[in-house]
Amino acid sequence: MLIEAPNAMAGIHIAEAMQIPIFRAFTMPWTKTRAHPHAFMVPKTKRGGLYNYGSHALFQHAYWQGTSGLVNAWRQEKLRLGPTTFGQMQQERIPFLYNFSHHVVSTPLDWDPWIKITGYWFLDEGGSSYTPPAALTDFIAKARLDGKKLVYIGFGSIVIDDAPAFTQKIVEAVLKADVRCVLSKGWSNRLETAPTEDAPSLPDAIFAIDKAPHDWLFGQMDAAVHHGGAGTTGASVRAGIPTIIKPFFGDQWFFGQRVEDLGIGVTIHNIDVDNLAAALVEVTTSRRILSRAKELGERVRSVSLPCSVCDFSILICA
Q1: Cβ contacts of 244-247, under 8 Å, gap ≥ 24
Q2: What is the pTM of this model?
Q3: What angle do helix axes 273-285 and 163-177 make, rounded to 10 degrees?
Q4: For the segment 45-80, what is each residue's pLDDT rounded down to a tens digit?
Q5: How do the domains of the chain map onto residue ranges?
Q6: Whole-number Å distance between alpha carbons of 284 and 266
Q7: Mean pLDDT throughout 219-233?
Q8: I want to staple 153 with a disulfide (CB 3.0 to 4.6 A). Which of 225, 227, 262, 289 is the partner?
Q9: Which residues contact 69 (CB under 8 A, 6 or more apart)?
Q10: Looking at domain 130-301, which CATH architecture does it have?
Q11: Using CA atoms, how far apart are residues 197 and 189, in angstroms rounded to an integer?
């Protein structure tokens, strides 16, 4: 059996050449439906079922048109197969596994029965083998002692044009909201877009980290601010904490919309001091958002199926 992400493109053709079954698996919706738009074509305002279904069809055909020449050449030269077409591949007939929660994205009524939402697949990285730095646990303990809300802010591998200015906005927003912040700065000097000496100094209210397992770290936080990637969104949902999403591209807009629709956080389109500070205050004080985030986290954690794969422990959560 072969399991591939659909954007890998090669799997369906390799399975054909080897004459073996194929499944597809992905972190974001890729199957046509009237329930929601394609994850890469989310409009700023909702446009209804016709747009949603059409966005999937348009994306799939455009994706194939952009790659079909290379794919068919590769099929003939490497796999010894004849050329194929979009229709001949019958991609809608391939069984599909979606590794997000049906509590976050419910199964559309117009999906075929071989399209399944399985629940999140989490790597249990923050278990007994992880020991957080003492400075980090001391920072968390002091925030609790001072009665301050704790928030995580990080944007993964996103490339920021002016990282020092971006960081300065975060610093000012954290101070204005009067919260404590664990800041993951993995994005700030990516590709060396800005010299390190230009980075603003961080006040005592902010503790910078390179990395930490989300399953441990988010459990210590009152809210999370991130880019809205499928995995990071799943981690904050699982932790039961409110989420602020600043999307940059791709499926991040889709999950930002889901966070707002579920009432577990907010999406901001631009990072500036005032709107980030306002969002931080809202998600750490709104009883509605806090209770909904907590309830959703409990639902996602309610079904947990541990299994061993190599040296990792994977948790499949509803």
Answers
A1: 244/268, 244/276, 244/279, 244/280, 244/283, 246/155, 246/270, 246/271
A2: 0.88
A3: 40
A4: 899 999 999 999 999 999 999 999 999 999 999 999
A5: 2-118, 130-301
A6: 11
A7: 96
A8: 225
A9: none
A10: 3-Layer(aba) Sandwich (3.40)
A11: 11
